[in-house]
Design a protein that fits this description.
Elements: H1 2-27, H2 34-39, H3 45-54, H4 61-73, E1 79-80, E2 85-86, H5 87-122, H6 127-141, H7 144-158, H8 174-208, H9 211-218, H10 223-251, H11 255-261, H12 266-276, H13 279-307
Antiparallel strand pairs: 1-2
Helix pairs in contact: 1-13, 5-6, 5-8, 5-10, 6-8, 7-8, 7-11, 8-10, 9-10, 10-13, 11-12, 12-13
Amino acid sequence: MTAFVVRRLIFAIPTLLIISAFVFFLQKLMPGDVALALAGEDRSVEVIEHIRQKYQLDEPIWVQYLAWLSAVVKGDLGHSIIMRTAVGPLLLQKLAVTLQLSVMAMIIALAIGIPAGIFAAVRHGTAWDYWTNVLALSGLSVPNFWLGIILILVVSVYLGWLPASGYVSLWVDPVQSLRTTIMPALVLGVSIAGMLMRHTRSAMLEVLRADYMRTARSKGISARRVIVVHGLRNALVPIVTFSSVIFGELLAGAVLTEQVFSVPGLGKMIVDAVFTRDFAVVQGVALLSAFIFLVANLLADIATMLLKPRTRE
């Protein structure tokens, strides 16, 4: 397994290089001039030239990319030209917010999706199975931004139970932090729960038809023990793989949900950076997102080998 992890980490290097180059060159195609935006309304030719020289905007694009890449290798992701701060600490600050939101969303999704999937598989072909699938498809079909707006309208505006937007750190006020993140986490968790329910149902249906399940029932083992111990344990491989990838996607930034609820995470930061042409922030978020996805896929493969030892071969 150690050799497998090392190979995956080595292969991750060219992947990150390709993604970083693609994002860097693509964002240079965006219309507008960063130097003009930074110079303000009362700009002069001297000020614009000074800004271009300061941020190497007058250099060829490949020179800019190599300069940025050499700095990244040294651990420097550059400085935000809008927020006037280093990108690295800024990413860590925003990642903490998105991490809290992602963990809460995954807890909600796992609490709903896995039991619903098991229930639908056990009741396969019945009305319960049909309506569970309807609810799962409904969760998949409803757009996150629409559900978020409806929750704000009902829960915050009409009922006044929770704040409509904003964020409070978990270390500052845990109760208020949960109040500000429970609605966006619910919006993300509902859509993931629908997908997780479908994966759990498919995996459980395949396991329930296996010969060892019939053997376990013939031995007089209780139905609950057969389903949980023998069934769910063998159906966990696709569920864990899917959950790992989805969690990596959440950590990369839930753009629409964070925008609707004004949660200052990675998703909201990259949208703001794109509009303000803060290229260092965009590049840093893209690189971090790619790294998170690679780590999530690696963890999913490791979990698969641990749950199913035959895959180690």
